[in-house]
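Tokens in:
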């Protein structure tokens, strides 16, 4: 009888916990630049900037003082070479990306693919995810840089879990 009570109590608590986790996430969706992802409620949107030609957009999100997300999205007419895109982002002086630490992680999802890496210097750790759509017959393709920036002192397993959860939810929505 006691084991049944503990089992039922555990199920109720886990259901409450998972409901709270799922309900606290909100979807960030951009119809013009064709992407969506989920962001926990304790993150706030800081800024959005669109280029004059409306071919790129920049989002900034912040989680208290521990982490910042920069999301850059570009609309292009052809499928972009992923390595060229990464090269230009890494070399862009205005982005001030630290040196890459280790190899890229690569995933192919059919209509889009992703490369990610960790970048480090004496002060910052950055998890950067690069995505590109691969739609040969579409009027536009898109490339994205999803960049998580934190100082070394704030990186911990909980933040790593949130970064993975957010990046795993990122989805290019172009068809």
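Residues out:
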């Amino acid at each position: 009888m006691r084991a049944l009570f503990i089992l039922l109590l555990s199920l109720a608590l886990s259901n409450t916990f998972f409901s709270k986790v799922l309900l606290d996430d909100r979807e960030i969706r951009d119809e013009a630049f064709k992407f969506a992802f989920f962001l926990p409620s304790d993150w706030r949107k800081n800024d959005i900037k669109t280029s004059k030609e409306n071919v790129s957009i920049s989002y900034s999100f912040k989680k208290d003082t521990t982490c910042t997300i920069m999301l850059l999205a570009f609309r292009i007419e052809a499928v972009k070479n992923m390595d060229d895109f990464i090269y230009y982002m890494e070399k862009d002086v205005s982005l001030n990306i630290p040196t890459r630490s280790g190899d890229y992680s690569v995933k192919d999802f059919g209509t889009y693919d992703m490369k990610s890496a960790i970048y480090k210097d004496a002060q910052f750790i950055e998890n950067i995810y690069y995505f590109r759509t691969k739609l040969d017959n579409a009027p536009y393709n898109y490339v994205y840089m999803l960049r998580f920036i934190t100082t070394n002192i704030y990186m911990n397993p909980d933040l790593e879990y949130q970064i993975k959860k957010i990046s795993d939810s990122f989805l290019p929505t172009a068809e």
